[in-house]
Amino acid sequence: MTDRPRQKQIRTITVTSGKGGVGKSNVVANLAVALAKAGKKVMIIDADLGLSNIDVIFDLAPKYTIQHILSGEKKLADVLADGPYGIKILPASSGVQELTELDEFQRLRLIEEFEAYDADIDVLLIDTGAGISENVAFFCIASQEIIVITSPEPTALTDAYALIKVLNTQYQEKDFKILINSARNSEDAFEVFKRLSIAAEKFLSLSLDYLGFMPYDESVPKAVRQQKAFVDAYPNCKAAEHLRVIAAKLMEEESPNRLKGSLQLFLGNILKKDTIVQSS
Q1: Which CATH architecture has domain 12-49+120-279?
Q2: pTM for the full model?
Q3: Which of 80, 90, 251, 272 is most buried per CB count within 10 Å?
Q4: Do 75 and 116 meet the contact criterion of CB atoms below 8 Å apart?
Q5: CA-to-CA distance for 92 and 65, rounded, in angstroms?
Q6: How far is CA 72 from CA 41, 116, 124, 126, 272, in A?
Q7: pLDDT tier for residue 96 given thresholds of 50, 70 and 90
């Protein structure tokens, strides 16, 4: 009798924001490309389940979406779309209101599909919807790491703090990486982070982790209009340079002791947390 192969540990990173329009999905897509170019096997879950974005950024037209998995029509392997550099993408659905809040049966369906999926993955990136919803909370608390993206706009900063507050006070999350997008320079970016950090420390007793910043760069909207990753379309632009630094920083921080398990465990945690919250 042979032993079952041990499930490979993967890095699960959820990228979220308190406010829409801060460039979250674009950061996820380009981070995936940067990691894949560095030799990592990457999967993206587009967890903005009612409004797909990742497939649009990569100029993909997936035939199936997560909706076909939840309905039982298709298997995960049939739905995954192929992005650049071998990136696997689980597309969301557009304009499907009932997917904005998954029920327990739908989560179980996802778990079953991921348990049956045995392809090699190093990094799982989850692109959540913006704001504070149960879907956003569940994907955040099930993940190993949470990156909160904000911009220098006061409303974006306020909403980022509100998201952190909810995840901390209602779900006991304590570790947050902060990425400032569309900043003029490093000084302005760190000033934004400092304001957020002071509020979190004063009112929540949290110490936030500064991941870095992305400068405002005309190449970014140009690449979006071309439906390409800016790290590919304009590899020498400032945004691409900063994105590669952020990707390298994330990978340098990787430690086997911090990895909690497989992809199945990630989605299993969603159901587990749901049970805890409902019973509390």
Answers
A1: 3-Layer(aba) Sandwich (3.40)
A2: 0.87
A3: 90
A4: yes
A5: 6
A6: 27, 14, 23, 22, 22
A7: low
CB–CB of 246/179 below 8 Å? yes
Measured CA to CA, the distance from residue 35 to residue 251 in angstroms comes to 9
pLDDT of residue 100: 58
What does 20-49 look like in DSSP terms, one character per residue?
TTSSHHHHHHHHHHHHHHTT--EEEEEE-T
Structure tokens at 129: 């919807």
* Cβ count near 85 (within 10 Å): 18
Residue-wise over 7-46: b if at least 16 C-beta within 10 A, else e?
eebbbbbbbbbbbeebbbbbbbbbbbbbbbbeebbbbbbb
Question: 47: closest CA among 156, 133, 123, 166?
Answer: 133
* CA distances from residue 157 to 150, 175, 271 in whole angstroms, order as listed: 6, 18, 30
CA 150 to chain CA centroid, nearest Å:
14
d(CA 2, CA 238): 52
State the Cα–Cα distance between residues 28 and 65, nearest whole angstrom: 18
How far is residue 243 CA from its own chain's centroid? 15
Q: How far is CA 47 from CA 8, 52, 87, 163, 185, in A?
A: 23, 8, 16, 16, 30
